[in-house]
Amino acid sequence: MGAVWHPECFRCHACSQPIYDYEFSMSGNHPYHKTCYKEQFHPKCDVCKQFIPTNMNGLIEYRAHPFWVQKYCPSHEMDGTPRCCSCERMEPRESKYVLLDDGRKLCLECLDSAVMDTNDCQPLYLEIQEFYEGLNMKVEQQVPLLLVERQALNEAMEGEKAGHHHLPETRGLCLSEEQTVSTILRPRMAGNKIMGMITEPYRLTRRCEVTAILILYGLPR
């Protein structure tokens, strides 16, 4: 710092108390007690509210949600800490998320605008139809839109597990039906015998027919 201080004049920039310790920390031109410096600058976990520990190389390592910028200890990804099924934020220790019937958890912010009833989502469906109609893409078919539980969508998921791990999850499906017949390709003639009869599937469709739209219930409007 290039200066000489009276002991009682050399004070911590955070607590304004004298620094008598042999070791202290600096930020810019300001001195700090090591404990005050840690409290001021060392990041805390947004989940457990503890200081984020250093890794084996002595570096502070943490995870962060790319949108919410929620910082948390790497260990919380494996210790069963729940995530909101909508925004994917980790559940802080001092607050509790709402447990849905199908095992998912919802944070209070997402719960505030969550759609829980099939009838409640119909006006949203009409808004979407009007949006497409404004783009000259009118949806002629009247497709049922239904809110369903997680189990109703699980068949479309590969390797999804119940619990709190951070895994991809299907949140909606469009159901459709189709018919397929076998059509004949040109066979080979060998003397008076037809050889190598080959068939291939042919899909019979007049247009894209959607049977229903299924959406996971409990997601924010």
Describe the protein.
- This protein is α+β, with helices and mostly antiparallel strands and 221 residues long.
- Among the domains are: 1-41, no CATH class; 114-221, no CATH class.
- It is built from 3 helices and 13 strands.
- The protein has helices spanning 34-41, 108-111, 122-134; strands at residues 25-27, 30-32, 63-64, 71-72, 98-99, 105-106, 145-148, 172-176, 179-185, 188-190, 193-195, 198-204, 210-216.
- The strands form 6 sheets. It has a 3-stranded mixed beta sheet with strand order 7-13-8, with no helix packed on it.
- The longest helix is centred in the middle third of the chain and has 13 residues, at 122-134.
- The chain is elongated, with a radius of gyration of 31 Å.
- Order of strands across the biggest sheet? 7-13-8
Instruction: Note poorly predicted spans.
Output: 156-166
User: What is the overall silhouette?
Assistant: elongated
Structural class category? alpha+beta
InterPro entries: DA1-like, DA1-like_dom, Znf_LIM
Keywords: Metal-binding, Receptor, Zinc
Organism: Zea mays
Protein name: Ubiquitin receptor1
